[in-house]
Amino acid sequence: MDKSRKFIAVILALLAAIFYAINTPFSKVLLNKIPPTLMASFLYLGAGTGVGIMYLFHRKVEEKYEKLNKADLPYTVGMIVLDIAAPISLMIGINIGSASNASLLGNFEIVATTIIALLIFKEKVTSKLWIAIGFITISSIVLSFEGAESFKFSLGSLFVILATCCWGLENNCTRKISDKSTYEIVLLKGFFSGSGAFIVALILGERIPEMKYIMAALLLGFVAYGLSIFMYIRAQRDLGATKTSAYYAVAPFVGTFLAFIVNGEKLTLVYFIGLVFMIIGSVIVAYDTMVKRHSHSHSHIIVHTHDGKTHTHIITHEHEHSHFILEEKHNHNHKHKDYMNSKEHKLIHEKRL
């Protein structure tokens, strides 16, 4: 993958974080008029509706991407179920606690995504990325236990953490199908997750709010969920679940700043201390993502004796080399596997570098 493609993926991940960041402070305002589960429902329905309209204008462009198939069903179902549970938990947490605290605790999603990606989905996590995750985690700890006026580890915080864990697993499920049609994925997320949350809300007996509040929630859902999810999935194609989630770490800080403006919540010294740790972590993630490793393919011409006959094979494989250039020829012995009869032969071959 070239650097320009990686750069675009990073920009998409950051935009996804910024769009999502507006969710918490504005949801806090709307939760005064809309019950939590219905709020979660309207956010996802708004995402599905808005992205569905976008699809009408980009149908031909999207045709090059493969549609979801039967093999993708487990990840698709997991994605939808988790997207029902996560926003409901988040809305309950926001409703009980403060918008800024809920935003800051969103950082735990990065940790959850990384651990799940490593343990369940076997995604590679580099040492630099672990260091970055460490800084991000320190930032989360600093911000989460600020003092008397900060986040108190309450029932609200447990719901927010539950939401981040659900989204951590959901991020990995979505990563498994991120090469497929982005529009199809977001539409499924929006309509099925939104409908599922709506059914739960009716079962709980939540009252339908006035239409003007519903429209406001749908619009917020399109921007904070629809556009955010769309860009997040596109970024995942090139960065993977772990790195995309790490870039997403800027969302809690943007959300906290917006909570200061929209909800009148205070920014403290600890907020800026945490910001320093977050910037360090983000810079390390950016470096780890943008560094291009040098590798190339070349051919070995191999001559060996097999069953009384002489064969010549051209075997192409990939090596990573340093940038030292060797001009000389050299001979050495090594073993290759003969894929015709699965026997190993000791070969002498000549290689040019």
Automatic annotation (TrEMBL):
Cellular component GO terms held in the UniProt record: plasma membrane
Parts of the chain that traverse the membrane: 37-57, 77-96, 102-121, 128-145, 151-169, 181-205, 211-233, 245-262, 268-287
Pfam families from the UniProt entry: EamA (PF00892)
The EamA domain, residue ranges: 8-144, 155-286
PANTHER family: INNER MEMBRANE PROTEIN YTFF (PTHR42920:SF11), OS03G0707200 PROTEIN-RELATED (PTHR42920)
Keywords annotated in UniProt: Cell membrane, Membrane, Transmembrane, Transmembrane helix
Family membership noted in the UniProt record: Belongs to the EamA transporter family.
Localization of this protein: Cell membrane
Protein name: Putative DMT superfamily transporter inner membrane protein
Source organism, top-level taxon: Bacteria
InterPro entries documented for this protein: Diverse_Substrate_Transporter (IPR051258), EamA_dom (IPR000620), EmrE-like (IPR037185)
Membrane topology: Multi-pass membrane protein
